[in-house]
Structure formats: C-alpha cells, structure tokens
Amino acid sequence: MPILVTGATGTVGSSLVRQLVAAGHEVRAVTRDPGSRAAAALPARAEVVAGDFGRPETLVPALRGIDRMHLVAIGESLTTGRRILDLAEEAGVRRVVHLGHNDPGRDDDDPIESDHRALHKAIENSGLEWTHIFPGEFMANTREWVASIRTESVVRAPFGDWTSAMVHEADIAAVAMAALLDEGHAGKTYVPTGPEPVRRRDAVRMIGDAIGREVRFIELTPEEAREHWKDRYPEQVIEWFLEMGRYLDGNAWVSPTVEEVTGRPGRTFAQWATDHATDFR
Ligand SMILES: NC(=O)c1ccc[n+]([C@@H]2O[C@H](COP(=O)([O-])OP(=O)(O)OC[C@H]3O[C@@H](n4cnc5c(N)ncnc54)[C@H](OP(=O)(O)O)[C@@H]3O)[C@@H](O)[C@H]2O)c1
Fold first, then answer.
1. Using a 6 Å cutoff on CB, does residue 138 contact ligand 1?
2. pLDDT at res. 112
3. Which parts of the chain register pLDDT below 70?
4. Which of 8, 123, 252, 262 has a CB 3.0–4.6 Å from the CB of 197, allowing a cystine?
5. 212: CA distance to ligand 1 center in Å?
6. Nearest CA to ligand 1 atom 11
7. Domain boundaries in the chain?
8. Is the beta carbon of 141 within 6 A of some atom in ligand 1?
9. How many CA atoms lie within 13 A of 136 on its CB side?
10. CATH no., domain 3-134
C-alpha cells in the first residue's frame, strides 16, 4: 500500500519522498502541479498525483487505497484540514503524521496561530492515529541568503549573535518517516531540533567554508533590517522576527527527538551547508 505524502515538492516533503523511496516503500506524492519542475525532480519511482488543499475533494483520488499519510499544515490546509481528515477517514486512512508548527509564546489572536491550533485539535479529535511534528527553525531558512551570497558573497541580517538549534530537513523527514512506518508514535508530539545551537554569524561562515570562499556577515540594525526586508515579508512578520531577535538564545534549546526517534544524531549546520553548497555558489 503506498504512503501518501502531501507537500511532496516542499523542503521536508521532498526529503521524505526520497527517503521512503530509497528504503523501498511505495510513495504517492501530492502536488498542485504534477507538471512542475519540483515535481519532475522527485524520484521516478514515486507516483505523482494532483491535489489541492484549497479544494479538498481533489484529494479523493490520491487518498484511494492509502492507510497512512503525511499532512503538511500550509496555506489552505490550515482551514480545510478538518474536511481533508474526514475524506481521509472515509477513504480508509488510519494514520496521519502532521508537520506543522506550535508556538505557545504567540498570541491566540494571531490568525495564523489560531488556524494552526484549530488544526491540531481537529487532528487530535479525528478517529485517526496521529503524530504531530513541530520542528524548530529550519536550517533551510538560510536559503534566504542565496542571492546575496551568490552575487556579493555577503549576508545582511540583524542580530549576528542570534543563536538557534536549527534543524536539517532530512532529520525532520526521518522523524516523520519513523512515525509513518513504525509503532509507538501515536499520540506523540515531536519537536525536532538540530544537534547544537549555532550563531547566525557562524552559520554564514560555515556556508563560506562549504562553498570555498569567504562570505561576510554585515550586521543590520533593526531599522536597517526593516528596510532590507520590507519588500519580502509582511510588516507583522518583520516585527515578529525583530522581537525574536531580542532574545538571542530564544531558539537555542536542543531537543533529543532526532536521536531518540531515528537512532542517530541530528545533522549539523556544517553538514547542511555542504549538502546545499551548489545552491549558494
Ligand atoms: N521554516 C521553518 O523554520 C519552520 C519551523 C517550524 C515549523 N515549520 C512548518 O513546516 C511546514 C512547512 O514545511 P516545508 O517548509 O517543508 O514546506 P514548503 O517547502 O513551503 O512546501 C510546502 C508544499 O506544500 C504544497 N502546497 C502548498 N499549498 C498547497 C495547496 N493548496 N494544496 C496542495 N499542496 C500545497 C506545495 O506543493 P506544490 O506547490 O507542489 O503544490 C509545497 O511544496 C509548515 O507547517 C510550517 O509551519 C516551519
């Protein structure tokens, strides 16, 4: 029976598809656009099917003959998730592994937070076996620096001493894979992080080491950061980034999840930078 992976062209989903296929499992990969480059980059042995969270009925063919699925909380699935879960149950799905996010520090009034929390409840109240995966900050977020590293060998960002135990997408996917395949994960909430806290300025240096040339870190003041990000992120998100930056070790906690669930230590940021060096060259 194939395993259904939604968000299959995404950062974590594509790694999950690759790891499942490499381990010999049948995978059905959902994307809104099976003709996209990202879909074409999935392993040839994965079955790529169309489906759109915004129109949950489009997922019915994808759910046929499936008993376990990976559900990513993103965009429309935050609001249509309950309907998707109903359709999954009707189709015979028994287990859902949910990749999402939980930030107890954020306000219930924040509309995105409250959508996430509503989805958590819908999953927990469904008749499915569920596992939540709420990772720490992704190492892959540093891809935001690709353009300036490629063209100028610099990174401009605030808070060079901001410290975060960022996590490799392959480790998040490995945790999801264990929860999909093995017993003992039902009803659990996993918070995978990387194996060590890394300062932002050190992450920049490690990318430089991986690509074989020096990359300079230029620290922005909060005011300069607002200007720098203004065309890229909504104002509310920028203010949230800046607020987080005031607590320099706010994300530094290292969770034992990756090692406990997968049996091997999490990948380091230096490893991530090597894995993605071609993106930054
Ligand atoms: N970034 C972080 O630091 C961080 C930290 C903690 C938690 N998280 C959580 O991680 C999750 C995101 O994971 P990710 O970064 O791997 O995702 P991602 O790279 O942004 O990819 C998400 C995938 O979802 C698919 N998708 C989007 N809208 C869709 C729709 N309407 N219908 C069907 N598919 C749709 C897209 O596939 P197609 O375009 O092919 O349709 C896309 O490939 C979120 O729940 C986020 O809250 C992120």
1. yes
2. 83
3. 108
4. 252
5. 31
6. 100
7. 3-134, 139-165+195-252+268-280
8. yes
9. 26
10. 3.40.50.720
